[in-house]
Amino acid sequence: MARTRNIAVKKTESKIDKPRRVLGRTRESATFPASGSLIDMPANYGELLQELKERIGRERLRTILAANTSMILMYWDIGQSILKRQGQEGWGAHVIDRLSMDLRKSFPSMCGFSPRNLKYMRAFATAWPDITIVQRVVAQLPWRQNIALIERLKKPDLRVWYAEQTILHGWSKDILTLQIEKMAHERHGKAITNFPLTLPPSDSDMAAQVFKDPYLFDFIGTADARREREVEVALVTHIQQFLLEMGTGFAFVGRQVHLEIGDHDYYIDLLFYHLKLRCFVVVELKAVPFEPGFVGQLNLYLSAVDDLLRHPDDKPTIGLLLCRSKNKMVVEYALRDLRKPIGVASWETKIVKSLPKELRGTLPTIEELERELEVVESGSVSTGPEDAS
Question: Could you tell me the pTM of the whole model?
Protein backbone atom coordinates (compact mmCIF):
# COMPACT_ATOMS: atom_id res chain seq x y z
CA MET A 1 0.00 0.00 0.00
CA ALA A 2 2.83 2.37 0.83
CA ARG A 3 4.36 1.76 -2.54
CA THR A 4 1.05 2.49 -4.22
CA ARG A 5 0.70 5.80 -2.36
CA ASN A 6 4.18 6.83 -3.38
CA ILE A 7 3.39 6.18 -6.98
CA ALA A 8 0.20 8.26 -6.71
CA VAL A 9 2.07 11.11 -5.14
CA LYS A 10 4.70 11.05 -7.83
CA LYS A 11 2.02 11.11 -10.53
CA THR A 12 0.40 14.12 -8.90
CA GLU A 13 3.68 15.92 -8.57
CA SER A 14 4.51 15.24 -12.17
CA LYS A 15 1.23 16.86 -13.22
CA ILE A 16 1.94 19.93 -11.16
CA ASP A 17 5.53 20.31 -12.26
CA LYS A 18 4.83 19.71 -15.94
CA PRO A 19 4.67 23.05 -17.79
CA ARG A 20 1.33 23.76 -19.55
CA ARG A 21 1.41 24.37 -23.28
CA VAL A 22 -0.50 27.32 -24.61
CA LEU A 23 -0.84 27.59 -28.39
CA GLY A 24 2.24 25.47 -28.97
CA ARG A 25 4.38 27.25 -26.40
CA THR A 26 4.86 26.72 -22.69
CA ARG A 27 3.48 29.29 -20.27
CA GLU A 28 7.01 29.74 -18.92
CA SER A 29 8.30 30.84 -22.31
CA ALA A 30 5.33 33.14 -23.08
CA THR A 31 5.88 36.89 -22.67
CA PHE A 32 3.20 39.57 -22.23
CA PRO A 33 4.26 43.21 -22.84
CA ALA A 34 3.45 45.56 -20.00
CA SER A 35 2.93 49.30 -20.33
CA GLY A 36 5.80 51.25 -18.88
CA SER A 37 5.44 54.00 -16.36
CA LEU A 38 5.22 57.59 -17.63
CA ILE A 39 8.28 58.29 -15.55
CA ASP A 40 10.27 55.88 -17.73
CA MET A 41 9.07 57.44 -20.99
CA PRO A 42 11.29 59.77 -23.06
CA ALA A 43 10.92 63.48 -22.45
CA ASN A 44 9.12 64.05 -25.75
CA TYR A 45 6.73 61.10 -25.36
CA GLY A 46 3.78 63.36 -24.47
CA GLU A 47 4.37 65.47 -27.56
CA LEU A 48 4.39 62.38 -29.79
CA LEU A 49 1.22 61.03 -28.16
CA GLN A 50 -0.59 64.35 -28.69
CA GLU A 51 0.49 64.48 -32.34
CA LEU A 52 -0.76 60.95 -32.99
CA LYS A 53 -4.07 61.60 -31.23
CA GLU A 54 -4.63 64.72 -33.31
CA ARG A 55 -3.71 62.87 -36.49
CA ILE A 56 -6.05 59.97 -35.73
CA GLY A 57 -8.81 62.42 -34.80
CA ARG A 58 -8.39 64.31 -38.08
CA GLU A 59 -8.40 61.14 -40.14
CA ARG A 60 -11.43 59.82 -38.31
CA LEU A 61 -13.30 63.07 -38.92
CA ARG A 62 -12.18 63.08 -42.55
CA THR A 63 -13.50 59.55 -42.97
CA ILE A 64 -16.86 60.49 -41.46
CA LEU A 65 -17.14 63.62 -43.61
CA ALA A 66 -16.17 61.69 -46.74
CA ALA A 67 -18.83 59.09 -46.01
CA ASN A 68 -21.43 61.82 -45.45
CA THR A 69 -20.44 63.58 -48.69
CA SER A 70 -20.74 60.35 -50.66
CA MET A 71 -24.17 59.68 -49.17
CA ILE A 72 -25.46 63.19 -49.94
CA LEU A 73 -24.23 62.98 -53.54
CA MET A 74 -25.86 59.56 -53.88
CA TYR A 75 -29.14 61.01 -52.57
CA TRP A 76 -28.88 63.80 -55.12
CA ASP A 77 -28.33 61.27 -57.93
CA ILE A 78 -31.33 59.23 -56.81
CA GLY A 79 -33.46 62.37 -56.64
CA GLN A 80 -32.35 63.41 -60.12
CA SER A 81 -33.16 59.97 -61.50
CA ILE A 82 -36.65 60.09 -60.01
CA LEU A 83 -37.22 63.59 -61.37
CA LYS A 84 -36.08 62.51 -64.82
CA ARG A 85 -38.35 59.48 -64.86
CA GLN A 86 -41.30 61.49 -63.60
CA GLY A 87 -40.75 64.06 -66.32
CA GLN A 88 -40.36 61.51 -69.10
CA GLU A 89 -42.73 58.74 -68.03
CA GLY A 90 -45.08 60.40 -65.56
CA TRP A 91 -44.15 58.33 -62.52
CA GLY A 92 -46.62 58.60 -59.68
CA ALA A 93 -46.38 58.10 -55.92
CA HIS A 94 -47.08 54.36 -56.26
CA VAL A 95 -43.87 53.91 -58.24
CA ILE A 96 -41.85 55.57 -55.45
CA ASP A 97 -43.53 53.26 -52.91
CA ARG A 98 -42.57 50.21 -55.00
CA LEU A 99 -39.05 51.55 -55.53
CA SER A 100 -38.68 52.00 -51.78
CA MET A 101 -39.71 48.41 -51.09
CA ASP A 102 -37.34 46.95 -53.71
CA LEU A 103 -34.36 49.05 -52.60
CA ARG A 104 -34.84 48.08 -48.95
CA LYS A 105 -35.12 44.43 -50.00
CA SER A 106 -31.91 44.65 -52.03
CA PHE A 107 -30.00 46.54 -49.33
CA PRO A 108 -31.47 45.39 -46.00
CA SER A 109 -28.53 46.71 -43.98
CA MET A 110 -28.89 50.27 -45.33
CA CYS A 111 -31.26 52.92 -44.01
CA GLY A 112 -32.75 55.87 -45.85
CA PHE A 113 -34.83 54.24 -48.57
CA SER A 114 -38.28 54.85 -47.10
CA PRO A 115 -40.90 56.40 -49.42
CA ARG A 116 -40.74 59.62 -47.43
CA ASN A 117 -36.97 59.86 -47.72
CA LEU A 118 -37.07 59.13 -51.46
CA LYS A 119 -39.45 62.07 -51.80
CA TYR A 120 -36.99 64.19 -49.82
CA MET A 121 -34.28 63.14 -52.29
CA ARG A 122 -36.50 64.31 -55.12
CA ALA A 123 -37.11 67.63 -53.36
CA PHE A 124 -33.38 67.90 -52.66
CA ALA A 125 -32.53 67.48 -56.34
CA THR A 126 -35.22 70.02 -57.25
CA ALA A 127 -33.88 72.58 -54.75
CA TRP A 128 -30.28 72.15 -55.94
CA PRO A 129 -30.25 71.61 -59.72
CA ASP A 130 -26.57 72.64 -59.93
CA ILE A 131 -24.34 69.75 -58.84
CA THR A 132 -21.36 72.09 -58.33
CA ILE A 133 -23.17 73.87 -55.46
CA VAL A 134 -24.10 70.51 -53.99
CA GLN A 135 -20.47 69.39 -54.08
CA ARG A 136 -19.08 72.69 -52.78
CA VAL A 137 -21.55 73.44 -49.98
CA VAL A 138 -24.45 71.22 -49.03
CA ALA A 139 -22.68 67.88 -49.42
CA GLN A 140 -20.74 68.86 -46.29
CA LEU A 141 -23.97 69.01 -44.25
CA PRO A 142 -25.74 66.08 -42.58
CA TRP A 143 -28.95 64.98 -44.26
CA ARG A 144 -31.15 66.33 -41.43
CA GLN A 145 -29.79 69.85 -41.92
CA ASN A 146 -30.35 69.57 -45.67
CA ILE A 147 -33.96 68.59 -45.08
CA ALA A 148 -34.42 71.65 -42.85
CA LEU A 149 -33.02 73.91 -45.60
CA ILE A 150 -35.35 72.63 -48.31
CA GLU A 151 -38.39 72.55 -46.01
CA ARG A 152 -38.04 76.04 -44.55
CA LEU A 153 -36.41 78.14 -47.27
CA LYS A 154 -37.61 78.81 -50.79
CA LYS A 155 -34.87 81.13 -52.08
CA PRO A 156 -31.65 79.42 -53.24
CA ASP A 157 -29.42 82.28 -52.08
CA LEU A 158 -30.81 82.03 -48.54
CA ARG A 159 -30.29 78.28 -48.56
CA VAL A 160 -26.65 78.82 -49.52
CA TRP A 161 -26.18 81.43 -46.78
CA TYR A 162 -27.64 79.23 -44.06
CA ALA A 163 -25.74 76.20 -45.35
CA GLU A 164 -22.45 78.10 -45.15
CA GLN A 165 -23.25 79.40 -41.66
CA THR A 166 -24.17 75.88 -40.53
CA ILE A 167 -20.80 74.59 -41.73
CA LEU A 168 -18.98 77.51 -40.12
CA HIS A 169 -20.71 77.31 -36.73
CA GLY A 170 -21.57 73.60 -36.58
CA TRP A 171 -25.32 74.20 -36.13
CA SER A 172 -27.46 71.16 -35.40
CA LYS A 173 -30.80 70.80 -37.15
CA ASP A 174 -32.65 72.35 -34.19
CA ILE A 175 -30.26 75.31 -34.00
CA LEU A 176 -30.42 75.81 -37.77
CA THR A 177 -34.22 75.80 -37.62
CA LEU A 178 -34.15 78.35 -34.79
CA GLN A 179 -31.76 80.61 -36.73
CA ILE A 180 -34.06 80.47 -39.77
CA GLU A 181 -37.11 81.29 -37.64
CA LYS A 182 -35.27 84.28 -36.13
CA MET A 183 -34.18 85.43 -39.61
CA ALA A 184 -30.49 85.44 -38.75
CA HIS A 185 -29.57 86.45 -42.31
CA GLU A 186 -31.19 89.85 -41.78
CA ARG A 187 -29.32 90.51 -38.52
CA HIS A 188 -25.79 89.12 -38.80
CA GLY A 189 -23.14 91.76 -39.35
CA LYS A 190 -25.68 94.60 -39.10
CA ALA A 191 -24.52 96.29 -35.88
CA ILE A 192 -23.16 99.82 -36.31
CA THR A 193 -19.45 99.72 -35.47
CA ASN A 194 -16.19 101.63 -35.79
CA PHE A 195 -14.20 98.43 -36.35
CA PRO A 196 -12.71 99.46 -39.73
CA LEU A 197 -11.05 102.44 -38.01
CA THR A 198 -9.98 100.72 -34.77
CA LEU A 199 -9.03 97.15 -35.73
CA PRO A 200 -6.70 95.56 -38.31
CA PRO A 201 -8.58 94.63 -41.53
CA SER A 202 -8.63 90.88 -40.83
CA ASP A 203 -9.88 91.36 -37.26
CA SER A 204 -12.33 94.07 -38.34
CA ASP A 205 -14.07 91.84 -40.89
CA MET A 206 -14.33 88.94 -38.46
CA ALA A 207 -15.57 91.11 -35.60
CA ALA A 208 -18.17 92.78 -37.81
CA GLN A 209 -19.68 89.39 -38.63
CA VAL A 210 -19.74 88.37 -34.98
CA PHE A 211 -22.21 91.10 -33.98
CA LYS A 212 -25.78 91.42 -35.19
CA ASP A 213 -28.68 93.85 -35.02
CA PRO A 214 -31.16 93.51 -33.47
CA TYR A 215 -30.61 90.91 -30.76
CA LEU A 216 -33.76 88.92 -29.96
CA PHE A 217 -34.16 88.16 -26.27
CA ASP A 218 -37.59 86.58 -26.59
CA PHE A 219 -36.69 83.93 -24.00
CA ILE A 220 -36.56 86.32 -21.03
CA GLY A 221 -40.32 86.03 -20.56
CA THR A 222 -41.83 88.47 -18.10
CA ALA A 223 -38.63 90.35 -17.23
CA ASP A 224 -39.36 94.06 -16.93
CA ALA A 225 -37.83 95.48 -20.10
CA ARG A 226 -37.70 98.94 -18.50
CA ARG A 227 -35.27 97.81 -15.80
CA GLU A 228 -31.82 96.91 -16.97
CA ARG A 229 -30.95 94.87 -13.88
CA GLU A 230 -34.00 92.63 -14.23
CA VAL A 231 -33.24 92.02 -17.89
CA GLU A 232 -29.65 91.22 -16.92
CA VAL A 233 -30.79 88.65 -14.38
CA ALA A 234 -33.16 87.08 -16.90
CA LEU A 235 -30.41 86.81 -19.51
CA VAL A 236 -28.03 85.11 -17.10
CA THR A 237 -30.80 82.81 -15.86
CA HIS A 238 -31.31 81.69 -19.46
CA ILE A 239 -27.58 81.66 -20.17
CA GLN A 240 -27.77 78.85 -22.73
CA GLN A 241 -30.32 80.68 -24.88
CA PHE A 242 -28.45 83.93 -24.31
CA LEU A 243 -25.17 82.46 -25.57
CA LEU A 244 -27.00 80.95 -28.52
CA GLU A 245 -28.36 84.38 -29.45
CA MET A 246 -24.95 85.99 -28.98
CA GLY A 247 -23.45 83.50 -31.41
CA THR A 248 -20.68 80.95 -31.69
CA GLY A 249 -17.45 81.68 -29.85
CA PHE A 250 -18.79 83.67 -26.89
CA ALA A 251 -17.75 82.38 -23.45
CA PHE A 252 -19.53 83.94 -20.48
CA VAL A 253 -17.14 85.42 -17.90
CA GLY A 254 -19.47 87.15 -15.47
CA ARG A 255 -22.21 89.62 -14.65
CA GLN A 256 -21.67 92.90 -12.76
CA VAL A 257 -17.91 92.40 -12.97
CA HIS A 258 -16.24 94.75 -10.49
CA LEU A 259 -13.60 97.25 -11.62
CA GLU A 260 -11.83 99.58 -9.22
CA ILE A 261 -10.68 102.70 -11.06
CA GLY A 262 -9.22 105.71 -9.24
CA ASP A 263 -10.79 104.76 -5.89
CA HIS A 264 -14.17 104.44 -7.60
CA ASP A 265 -16.14 101.23 -8.07
CA TYR A 266 -17.54 100.39 -11.49
CA TYR A 267 -19.47 97.31 -12.60
CA ILE A 268 -19.58 95.85 -16.11
CA ASP A 269 -23.04 94.58 -16.96
CA LEU A 270 -21.89 91.46 -18.82
CA LEU A 271 -18.38 90.31 -19.66
CA PHE A 272 -17.53 87.70 -22.29
CA TYR A 273 -14.45 86.29 -23.92
CA HIS A 274 -14.60 85.49 -27.62
CA LEU A 275 -12.61 82.40 -28.50
CA LYS A 276 -12.10 83.22 -32.19
CA LEU A 277 -11.46 86.93 -31.81
CA ARG A 278 -9.21 86.15 -28.83
CA CYS A 279 -10.37 89.11 -26.81
CA PHE A 280 -12.71 90.22 -24.02
CA VAL A 281 -16.10 91.58 -25.05
CA VAL A 282 -17.78 94.08 -22.70
CA VAL A 283 -21.55 94.18 -23.12
CA GLU A 284 -23.48 97.12 -21.69
CA LEU A 285 -27.24 96.72 -21.58
CA LYS A 286 -29.55 99.74 -21.71
CA ALA A 287 -33.32 99.66 -21.39
CA VAL A 288 -33.66 103.08 -23.08
CA PRO A 289 -32.87 104.48 -26.53
CA PHE A 290 -29.25 105.19 -27.42
CA GLU A 291 -27.59 108.27 -25.96
CA PRO A 292 -24.07 109.46 -26.91
CA GLY A 293 -23.03 109.48 -23.25
CA PHE A 294 -23.32 105.68 -23.16
CA VAL A 295 -20.32 105.45 -25.46
CA GLY A 296 -18.09 107.34 -23.01
CA GLN A 297 -18.98 104.96 -20.21
CA LEU A 298 -18.29 101.91 -22.37
CA ASN A 299 -15.01 103.43 -23.54
CA LEU A 300 -13.93 103.72 -19.89
CA TYR A 301 -14.70 100.05 -19.29
CA LEU A 302 -12.73 98.96 -22.37
CA SER A 303 -9.63 100.85 -21.25
CA ALA A 304 -9.90 99.38 -17.75
CA VAL A 305 -10.34 95.81 -18.98
CA ASP A 306 -7.34 96.22 -21.30
CA ASP A 307 -5.22 97.34 -18.34
CA LEU A 308 -6.59 95.13 -15.56
CA LEU A 309 -7.84 91.89 -17.14
CA ARG A 310 -6.34 91.54 -20.59
CA HIS A 311 -3.53 89.00 -21.03
CA PRO A 312 -0.52 90.09 -23.14
CA ASP A 313 -1.54 87.55 -25.81
CA ASP A 314 -5.12 88.84 -25.97
CA LYS A 315 -6.25 91.28 -28.62
CA PRO A 316 -7.83 94.66 -27.72
CA THR A 317 -11.12 94.44 -25.86
CA ILE A 318 -14.28 95.09 -27.88
CA GLY A 319 -17.41 96.79 -26.58
CA LEU A 320 -21.02 96.04 -27.49
CA LEU A 321 -23.71 98.51 -26.44
CA LEU A 322 -27.26 97.12 -26.52
CA CYS A 323 -30.07 99.70 -26.45
CA ARG A 324 -33.82 99.50 -26.94
CA SER A 325 -33.54 101.66 -30.05
CA LYS A 326 -31.09 103.95 -31.82
CA ASN A 327 -30.70 106.64 -34.44
CA LYS A 328 -28.14 105.44 -36.96
CA MET A 329 -26.69 108.88 -37.69
CA VAL A 330 -26.32 109.76 -34.01
CA VAL A 331 -24.55 106.45 -33.36
CA GLU A 332 -22.17 106.94 -36.27
CA TYR A 333 -21.22 110.42 -35.06
CA ALA A 334 -20.74 109.14 -31.51
CA LEU A 335 -18.36 106.39 -32.68
CA ARG A 336 -16.48 108.27 -35.38
CA ASP A 337 -13.37 109.50 -33.50
CA LEU A 338 -13.13 106.84 -30.81
CA ARG A 339 -9.96 104.73 -30.68
CA LYS A 340 -11.61 101.77 -28.95
CA PRO A 341 -13.59 99.23 -31.02
CA ILE A 342 -17.29 99.53 -30.19
CA GLY A 343 -20.47 98.20 -31.76
CA VAL A 344 -24.00 99.42 -31.12
CA ALA A 345 -27.12 97.33 -31.66
CA SER A 346 -30.69 97.23 -30.44
CA TRP A 347 -32.42 94.44 -28.59
CA GLU A 348 -36.00 93.25 -28.65
CA THR A 349 -38.23 90.97 -26.65
CA LYS A 350 -40.98 88.63 -27.71
CA ILE A 351 -43.64 91.23 -26.95
CA VAL A 352 -42.22 93.74 -29.41
CA LYS A 353 -41.36 91.14 -32.04
CA SER A 354 -44.84 89.59 -31.96
CA LEU A 355 -46.54 92.80 -33.11
CA PRO A 356 -47.43 92.97 -36.81
CA LYS A 357 -44.98 95.11 -38.76
CA GLU A 358 -47.65 97.60 -39.72
CA LEU A 359 -48.45 98.25 -36.04
CA ARG A 360 -44.88 98.59 -34.73
CA GLY A 361 -44.17 102.20 -33.91
CA THR A 362 -47.85 103.19 -33.99
CA LEU A 363 -48.84 101.90 -30.54
CA PRO A 364 -47.83 103.93 -27.46
CA THR A 365 -44.87 102.73 -25.42
CA ILE A 366 -45.10 101.87 -21.73
CA GLU A 367 -43.33 105.14 -20.90
CA GLU A 368 -45.86 107.15 -22.93
CA LEU A 369 -48.78 105.41 -21.23
CA GLU A 370 -47.29 106.11 -17.80
CA ARG A 371 -46.86 109.80 -18.63
CA GLU A 372 -50.47 110.03 -19.78
CA LEU A 373 -51.67 108.37 -16.57
CA GLU A 374 -49.65 110.83 -14.49
CA VAL A 375 -51.24 113.73 -16.35
CA VAL A 376 -54.74 112.32 -15.84
CA GLU A 377 -54.12 111.75 -12.13
CA SER A 378 -52.91 115.33 -11.69
CA GLY A 379 -56.12 116.61 -13.28
CA SER A 380 -54.42 118.59 -16.04
CA VAL A 381 -55.25 116.91 -19.31
CA SER A 382 -53.44 118.51 -22.23
CA THR A 383 -55.56 119.62 -25.16
CA GLY A 384 -55.03 118.30 -28.65
CA PRO A 385 -54.77 120.39 -31.83
CA GLU A 386 -58.57 120.46 -32.26
CA ASP A 387 -59.22 121.78 -28.75
CA ALA A 388 -56.48 124.41 -29.03
CA SER A 389 -58.41 126.27 -31.67
Answer: 0.65
